[in-house]
Amino acid sequence: MRAALASLVLLGALGGSSAHAQGVAEPAHAEGDGERDDGASGESVESADSAPPTRCPRWRRRLAPVVSLLAGPVVHGAGSFTGCHRLTGRRLGIAQGVGFGMLLVGGAGLALTGASRKTVAPFAMIGIPGVGAFFISWLADVYAAITDGRSMGRPGPNTPYELRLGYRYVHDPHFDHGSFAQAGITGWIGQHRLWVDTDVALDANTQRVRAGAARRLLGGAGRGSHLELVVAGTYQRFAEDGFRSFSGELAIGGRVDLADVAPALVGSFAIGELGLGLQGIGYEATGGGVGQDSHALLLVRVGWGVYLGRYGELVVAYDHRRDGLEGGLSVDSVGSGNLGFLQLTGRGWFGAAPRWGLAAELTAGSAWIAGLSLLHRAAPPEEPR
Amino acid sequence: MNRAFPLLLLIAACLRPSEDHVALDAVVGADSIEGSTLTIDGGLGAIHRLSANEAVVWAAAPIVALDLDPASTPFTLEVRNVIADSTLTLDGVPVAREAGDSPPTWGRWVLDGPGRVRVAPADEGERTPYRVAVLSDIQSAIGEVQDIYGRMNADDSIRFVISTGDLTDNGTFEELLRFQEEMESLSVPLYSTVGNHEVPGPENWHDLFGPFSTYFEFRGVAYTLVDSSNATIDPAEMDQLGPWLEAHIGAPHLFLTHVPLFDASGLRSGAFRSRNEAAALVNRLAEAEVDALFFGHVHSYYAYSLGGIDSYISGGGGAIEEELDGIGRHYLTVDVDPAEGIQSVGLVRIE
């Protein structure tokens, strides 16, 4: 676990150096990002470049992170306001309200219907993203207050292919497996993304293969804001525990580059995915195939991240699914059994060898997972200057 | 919101959230106070009171055996939550039951010395069909549970009630005590594992109801009531479950746990926190030829199949109902035949 933490720190360093090497977006200046204290406001980072800087007292900028941590949890955007990013603060406040409203609608719907089988999916699909919007707006406020509109990176294009080879340690008290070899490949063909990921236990007879395809519906093929349709399948084999499973899923997912939402959020983004799936399970005891039992899957994933350079990123996410190695969180309270897992992932590329990089993850569900992978990619496409 | 950080840390730390339940089960049903020592076999009960010349025990199974070494005699032993016609033997010798106006499921005996005590109903040796009821998820409807008990009392064929838990809202001592007081009108005992609503006060359950997980046999039928209150079964509990399952292969076997291994509605997934853990357990239960699985947690009624095992979700004790399902408050009757297994599972609607 310490190694993985160190890896994430290293990734930050990698991303930082890469950012410098590749030219990070200059600060969407707190005083001059178009959302000045005098009330004038702009809508984009670009407009900031031409806007005359407006002075924000140093003490306010220094106070902003503190406010974002102390008052920000209650009033999202308080840190941004303090740091003179009024537009950002206002929009984060709106996002908090929207998130809270969605949480209320989803939560009330679930409560009033007793989590009826007939209505649970739509209410959960409103409520969980609502929780996500609520927390993301707070994280984004902390980010804006700390960075003061200076990004650590910006979204670059995706490369034609990317290979991954790594190690995952999975600590699950219910299973003998622990060490996994991980390999994967992602390729881009036009607006289509194809990928395969495998996990093979080194100390048990457990394997997992996940493959999928996604088509961009909006946003081109870059790493900025986009919307895509995702089709994926996962096969798991737990030979020592006597079962196999296969799940198929269909989802709509995407990313919002938060610079498109508020100037001081440049360099950060939000992710989300909504979908449905069906998992089939077969048991050795009965000799059934993976279609013996079937269970529907509700797919909801929300997260927030920051770009590290043009190709790296750090993401914290909540995933509602509980059908993988990660399982779901327990809270030792009446809420047990209804949560998915939390995940922190990061990736970055070496400045000196830009086709090579590292990816790391920390996951907390019913298992703890720490992983580190070596990345290799095609040469990044040249970008117009 | 500042509390979010420790909460997140707590969440991340919960790989074995029921570990403390297993630790409490290891010491349940044994005590030594004022010179008297009492040890219940298998921890199948809670010791409510123990003194030099008196003990009150809450039984967690139809047959309770214990070792008693009183500080003084005569020693009065009261065993609550027993089948009404239960008798007591001390070192194999029957002891007359004290007369009184206590509830039918309370038995009181005056013992004249130390020894091996066994409390069991008269029909324990029979291998004929009988009926049990399954009732779970009463929670805040504790004030309305009497009409359910009334229906059960009217059915003479029910030998006892089994429950997957959520008897109360928050598992406080007062709530659990209230539940036991309400049970005084029920003419048969009720044996239960814990639900997630009992999780906030595990020591209260330990003190008043005894074990979180219970394994017992009655008239040739095996009963497994396992703690899944945290949407998982602790690995240490699984170590105890394994030999029990293997020992009862071929015998009729009812498996009860609060949280469904898999929810009949996968989109809701009010189920185990890990589908892989659930699948591994389903395979073990199928290998052990368990006859039926009973769950609560979801406040409706479902009959479905897991790994070829007949499975039922029944959370009809009165907790907030699942709407749009046409089910409402209910309990189940299960007719078991030691020779043939489960004969039928019936849904008894209260409203």
Helix content of chain A: 25-40%
Unreliable spans of chain A are: 1-53
How large is the share of residues in beta strands of chain A?
A: 35-45%
CATH architecture of the largest domain in chain A: Beta Barrel
Helix content of chain B: 10-25%
- Alpha-beta content class of chain B: alpha/beta
Number of helices of chain A: 6
User: Distance N terminus to C terminus of chain A?
Assistant: 41 Å
Alpha-beta content class of chain A: alpha+beta
- Strand order in space, largest sheet of chain A: 1-2-3-4-5-6-7-8-9-10-11-12
Low-pLDDT sequence parts of chain B: none
Rg of chain B, please? 20 Å
Strand content of chain B: 25-35%
Order of helices and strands of chain B: HHEEEEEEEEEEEHEHEHEEHEHEEEEE
Which strand order spans the largest sheet of chain B, edge to edge or round the barrel?
1-2-5-10-7-8
The description of the largest β-sheet of chain B is:
6 strands, antiparallel
Task: Determine and state the CATH class of the largest domain in chain A.
Answer: Mainly Beta
Cα distance spanning the termini of chain B: 42 Å
